[in-house]
């Protein structure tokens, strides 16, 4: 199909792939990018929040050009039981700054724009092209890819695998393990459309201000999971995700959870009267530091979700994707500028650079949290939210019971549910994993 | 009350845009007489309800509404119960919002 030879082939046009392709093209490399969707973004699903700092490093002028929804001025955390939520809200006018820190975005639209910048930089993009296989040369070295186009074998010095969480190429070639049910979550999402003014009134916003709500508790029915509600300009992204292993174990359905979340008395008024225009689902890498695969080899590197680079605690993913894509490209650029081959030894510099960045440092910090959350899901996602909700109701309801009696009853309910040693153990385990 | 019975996934899938690759399903179920626990799990775990039991008690798949999340791959590919590929270039779900 394509006779010419490329310096690099990037598989995928998501955040990681676009960051990598853009960075390499700007360094004068000849880059081919392959995308299986009709257009960049058509296969990509995210909540979605964009972190400005990481985007700025790639396209400094993005605020003027990119399709952004709302800049976030408020973050709400909700702990829910079936009828109530206990919330912590942080809202600050500081976030109404000239160069806002976080935005909500709509990925299909954002990625299309991001890709236009990548092509402007000189990258050749081929859409509607599924890469079916990695091509090996001498000494097992990856020398290119095979696609589903006719005569679809293309060669390059290095292949950047930005194929996403469900990438088949790396796993089929034995470069990394397939994602496991206990280290990926399945999230389902709907896009609810409402008039702009309605969204602003319901979420207490002015202009392009935005709000994020993250919710945990009985909405996941004892599974490790979270719900989310993001305010966009004229729509609300609403979804919920739980570990695949938990879905498998409990036989709960993803759409059943989503429906229950939508009908929760704290959520229903926010989306009342909306028109749903899309239903999507996506896997999220949740294994953290311990699930990161081999990141480089003879003629290849892996970036973004495909490398399980996702911070589940802070719900950061796309910025880790962008950053790993950029750093991989810089590492490749360094090897190339020295005129050296794209061998595993030379590409190992990618891992060194990534280790020095926030990407690996953050994941390392929380390396023990995923296993804790996954094994204690009943306590953290069912028992505690119910207890805390009951305690709050006890605290605020005025009914003539003396306060001391109320507090005693609250304490008793905690001890009855988890026992003193259980409570103490949970607190210690959580503190240790968080540290 | 059983919530699941009230949710019609088919209605949700109508919101989406698909280019169905007729005659080229990207996911296949291995022929079986009795479904494995992994295959049975897909009846519930698939967010597009692509998997259903036929009259003979075997698990069947219809990929037309697939939203390509990969959940079934994670659960049932290791056991060999299903074969998973991405749809051919340009086919499958095309998200407008994503």
TrEMBL record, chain B:
One example GO MF annotation: iron ion binding
Metal-binding is among the record's keywords: yes
Domain 4Fe-4S ferredoxin-type: 57-87
Phylogenetic placement of the source organism: Bacteria, Pseudomonadati, Pseudomonadota, Alphaproteobacteria, Hyphomicrobiales
Function recorded in the entry: Could be a 3Fe-4S cluster-containing protein.
Family note: To ferredoxins from P.putida and C.tartarivorum, ferredoxin I from A.vinelandii, ferredoxin II from D.desulfuricans.
Short name of one Pfam family: Fer4_ETF_QO
Keyword Transport: yes
Protein name: Ferredoxin-like protein
Keywords of the record: Electron transport, Iron, Iron-sulfur, Metal-binding, Nitrogen fixation, Transport
InterPro entries: 4Fe4S_Fe-S-bd (IPR017896), ETF-QO/FixX_C (IPR007859), Fd_FixX (IPR012206)
Source organism (scientific name): Bradyrhizobium forestalis
